[in-house]
Amino acid sequence: MRSKYREVRYFCGEFLDAQCFPVYKKTKSKRGRFQPTGECQARLNEKNSRRHLTRLVHANFCSRDLALHLTYKDECMPETEDAAKKDLRNFFRRVRRLYKAAGVEFKYISVTEKGSRSGRVHHHLIVTGGVSRDDLEALWTAGRANTKRLQFDDNGLVGLSVYMTKQKLYFRRYNCSRNLKDPDKTKKVSDQRVSRKRAGLICNFEDRESLEKLYPGYRLLGVEYIISDLTGEYYAYVRLRRICERPKALKREGREALGLPQSPRRGIRRCGKKELAATMAPYSQKVVSDSEPL
User: Fold this and answer.
1) Distance between CA atoms of 191 and 169, rounded to whole angstroms?
2) Cα 68 from chain centroid?
3) Going from the N-terminus, what domains does the chain have, and what CATH number goes with each?
4) How many whole angstroms separate alpha carbon 145 and alpha carbon 143?
5) pTM across the whole model
6) Exposure winner among 84, 101, 262, 287, fewest CB in 10 A?
């Protein structure tokens, strides 16, 4: 069966994730009964969940934000899953009061894990900055709290996302606040940009320059790809990082350097023609004719 390739681009701040995969024409068939998730599908779900978590982190947090790790003392260790959830909810209630007093919007992503060897429950969080780290750590009274600034490397925060989701305790791999920007809602889907030949070029990431031409303004970070043994089709996931500012940002910086308002039309009505002419006078060139003395 002949297939076409679909490209999905996720814009996450200064990072860009692109996914290319074949799509087939759907056939009318009766849906089978529900079956438990297979081992291969479970691994794929886990990989997609980590990718989605990484996109959420890149789209909503920056180097000014914090990574918060919470552990328990022996006498405060929760015995059930509901008890661990209750401890985290009470902690969030105190944290929201702290952020509200500081006038900072509170955003978070939380993961609760249980150690494979020790069996101890602990929490990993990414929260917005803007408050005192000492005050934030003091709100956790059930054990130790350690905060660190988010440190972006060439791959962003992929390593932190993988570390946070290595062992889940709940059915959900992670929880997050409702005020986060979801890159999946602003993704761009195209069925014409990528052909089978171009998908093969993406998988051949050794030709770095040709691959970066597909995404101008971005630098290649890495490619994850699979070639199906059954159909021979390509499945690729590309991670890139922006290397230049957008044209609108450059235009805005240029107007700020000249001391002009951001909107030309609004600026003329607001400041008047005389004020605008006085602002542009140092940058205007006077035309001198041959008859006029220098």
Assistant:
1) 38
2) 18
3) 59-176 (3.30.70), 247-280 (no CATH)
4) 7
5) 0.72
6) 287
